[in-house]
């Protein structure tokens, strides 16, 4: 006898009164069900339709979930849950299916077997767990969490290196090193590229005749001298070039400002604008990407610049790739080599657009006594020097380049060309009984760096080539200029 076949259920036709009554009775029966039954049905449906938790591998495989709650439930128990990441996981047998929503330790703790899904390992840092792809910065290096559970960090040489700071301070080098927040996070390569910015002059300039000072054979110069003491109120504070590789412009403006103040006997004390040079002195110059001091002095003689108040510095971030700002200050000749501005000040709050100029710059001898006499008689001078990796960390003392990075890879030993303003000299009695001679120089990294923006460096030994190319200049100051400023 053939098996009985069930008759397929026919769809309801709500146009028929009989089918309409059936639908109404079914709806009433559903509404009379207890709320918990309805909730369970919805919960079951939601759980069964949810995607699996471990499609990309098990996260936090070493975490304690079922074990911490001592939860291993038989069959299906939708209440057998534990918080997991930003959702929940289950510790019942029903979780162990194709679309799994088991807690990471369910298989090992409840079943005593290896999990059937690949383990997505996490990286641990400071006691915290991070998923694959997470990142953090360790000074100048980016560290990324790899799928094997290990952090992989870049290997750049950082501008501030704690090992080198400690090595300098432990050694007997005569100076102290320190960390600087404005340098933290920068690579050494970025420091060389963004914090210096002077190009070595060409051979023709390096071979220019040196001005010889008239010195008696037995002339004795003082052991200590500071231009700020002799010319009080005429020596300007150290500048801050930020991440603009424009020391060629900053050192030139700094020396010219002091020299014009001194040569006008204090009647003119302008703080000249580095930005005027950076934006307008474009002949063979690259603005915040480097330039030559001989080109800067040519511009100051032939075109002149306004004050920093009139044409303020536009700070630049190292990450920025913005084009150089256009020149906003033009001038015209008024005869006898003098210039007059034809534009208003870029700073609308400043109304004095007076142009300041210099005479041709002259090179001094590399002899320390001749540099000293020039400085003492005529004011601060400009010097070109080589900056090494340890100089960025200078805090105080008499700087000399140290060998603390000698055992490091080559990318930790870098140097670049810089220019600074020398303002004085002195001597210091060393612990070994010798006298250590030094120059006092103003850097352009702000007053938070070094000794309030200044540094001392060994004198008489051409340390870091600081005595190789030294320049002096006279401010172009006539009696009419002094009379004009005196009336003001």
Automatic annotation (TrEMBL):
SMART domains: Pept_C1. One of its GO terms (biological process) is proteolysis. GO terms for molecular function: cysteine-type peptidase activity; peptidase inhibitor activity. The keyword Mitochondrion does not apply. Residues 322-354 are annotated as: Disordered. Residues 69-116 form the SMB domain. InterPro entries: Pacifastin_dom_sf, Papain-like_cys_pep_sf, Pept_asp_AS, Pept_his_AS, Peptidase_C1A, Peptidase_C1A_C, Somatomedin_B_dom. Belongs to the peptidase C1 family. CDD domains: Peptidase_C1A_CathepsinB. Keywords: Disulfide bond, Glycoprotein, Secreted. This is SMB domain-containing protein. One of its GO terms (cellular component) is extracellular region. It is found in: Secreted.
